Amino acid sequence: MSLHPELETFLELITLGRMSGQNKPLHALSVEQARVVFEQTSLVLDPDPPKSITVTAVLIPTRDGKTIRARLYRKTGKVSEKLPVILYFHGGGYVVGSLDSHEGICRRLAWYGDFAVLAPEYRLAPEYRWPVAVEDALDTANWLSKQGAAFDLDSAHVVVAGDSAGATLATTLAITSVKHPDWMEVKPIAQLLFYPVTDTTRLRASHRDYGKGYLLESETLEWFYQHYVETDQRSHWTISPLLISDIPILPPTYIRLAKFDPLHDEGSAYAQLLQTHGTCVQLTVENALTHDYLRMGGIVDEVDNIYKETILWLKSIQSQLNF
Asked: Residue limits of the Alpha/beta hydrolase fold-3 domain (predicted)?
């Protein structure tokens, strides 16, 4: 299957811009420039996310005495209901991305389902290198366990979720909840992983085939990793969960990939690893899309169906758990 027509047109415009000296890839920019460019893409990719969402600002304390911002999203009309929670971590290679860049994703997840969505703004590299992002994720989960009830959140029914590097943080929490239960008070009921980073130590065929010209580029990935972590640390399971030596059985897992994505092969390998070791996995590949499609609701109509299908899967998990 070929690229989705609207997405192909969008990529052609990017290519034309580069030929004229504009639209440089993120790895050709400074960190500050890359962050600005990434934020601006949200205005193009998803300019009109659902409006009937109540958004509450939250401050979450971290283990080093600081606080990080977070946003809590819930469908208007369900403000006073106690709701299960999707704990969502934005993508961006640990270097770019923010609450604003992924506002549309969080609004759509809250709109299509009967979940509240809690999105923390974990600290980014290179100012904060590994393991700060992981620690911020853990601190957010433990805050949710202690303080969730004050915000009408059901911390007994939490789904960890994210896209790209954010999906890596989500699966790190899922692994931690089983492997090191004393580190984390929340016990996720499921995980949603959209085009996750699972192995930062090597390149696979999808890097060769789709590592340039398909939005996310392999050189950009390497640029992210160099800012985030030392080379000799990349095999740690919180950075490259595919390389974990003793993967436990994890909560039911929903993995959704893109064919035209350098991360496709490692995401597929991670799904296989989980299945082989006893985790229930739902794997879907979007055969006409690229990395970052969750943020493309404004240019690819089919993205709405991805959210709807994701929520249907979550409802099936709720049904199995009888809540």
From this structure: 86-294
Chain position carrying tokens 């909840």: 177
- Rounded-to-integer distance, Cα 302 and Cα 279, Å: 28
Q: Which residues are catalytic?
A: 164
- Full set of structural domains in the chain with CATH: 5-321 (3.40.50.1820)
Structure tokens belonging to residue 204: 């696979």
* Secondary structure element (H or E) that encloses residue 190, with its range: strand 190-194
| Overall pTM > 0.85 | yes
Task: Encode pLDDT of 1-53 as tens digits.
Answer: 699 999 999 998 888 777 677 789 999 999 999 999 999 998 889 999 999 99
Q: State the angle between helix axes of 132-147 and 165-179 in degrees (0 to 180), rounded to the nearest 10.
A: 60
Nearest 10 degrees: CA dihedral of 237, 211, 48, 105?
A: -10
- The full DSSP string for 237-296 is TTT-GGG-SSPPP-S-EEEEEEEE-TTHHHHHHHHHHHHHTT--EEEEEEEEEETTGGG-
Q: What does the pLDDT look like over 212-241, one tens digit per residue?
A: 999 999 999 999 999 999 999 999 999 999
Give strand pairing partners of 257. Answer: 285
Q: How confident is the model at residue 80 (pLDDT cuts 50, 70, 90)?
A: low
